[in-house]
Write a structure and sequence with these properties.
Layout (H helix, E strand, L loop, with lengths): L19 H10 L1 E6 L3 H11 L3 E6 L2 H10 L4 E5 L6 H12 L4 E6 L4 H9 L4 E4 L4 H13 L22
Parallel strand pairs: 1-2, 1-3, 3-4, 4-5
Helix pairs in contact: 3-4
Amino acid sequence: MPIREVETQKPMNKPQAPGKSASRAAEQTRLKALVAETDSPMRSRLVQLLSVDCQVVCAETVRRAARLIQRNNFDLVICDQELPSSGGMALINFVKLQAPETFVVLAMDKLDAQVRSRAILQGALECYAKPISDEAVRLLILHVRSGSKMNPDGETAMRPVRRRGGRK
C-alpha cells in the first residue's frame, strides 16, 4: 500500500496539545529513502545514518525494490551495484522510468570510472565506494532536500574518481 498523507478535519472546539502540530509538520517534511543493499552491515549503517532525516525502507533485491518504488514516492534511492538478479544499474533505469524526480545513488565495492560514468548517464546522482562515509550521507541529504544535483562549484557532491596516474 502506498505511503499517503491523509488530511482530516479537526474539530474546531478541541484544542491541540502543544508541540503536536510541530511534530506532525516535521514528519511530513521528512524525506523518504529506499536502501537497496545486499550487505547487512552496510544496509544497517545506511539506515542508521539516514533515519535522522528520513523515513527509511529497505530491500535486498531488485524485484523487492521495484515493488516498493511502484507503491511509494521516494525522494532518494541508494542501490547496491551487486543487487541479485539484474543489479543496481537495472534499478537505476527502473527508478528513472517510474519516478524520474527521485535521486538515485549507486553504491559500489570499488569505484570504477566506466561504471560511474554509465550510472550517471543513466540518471544516478552519483556513485559511492563502500563504505559510504557519514559526511557523504549528510551531503547527499542536503542535496536531496535542496533539489540540487550539483554543488555551487558545478561539481557533484561526492569525491572525484581518480584517473590513471593518480590525478583527479
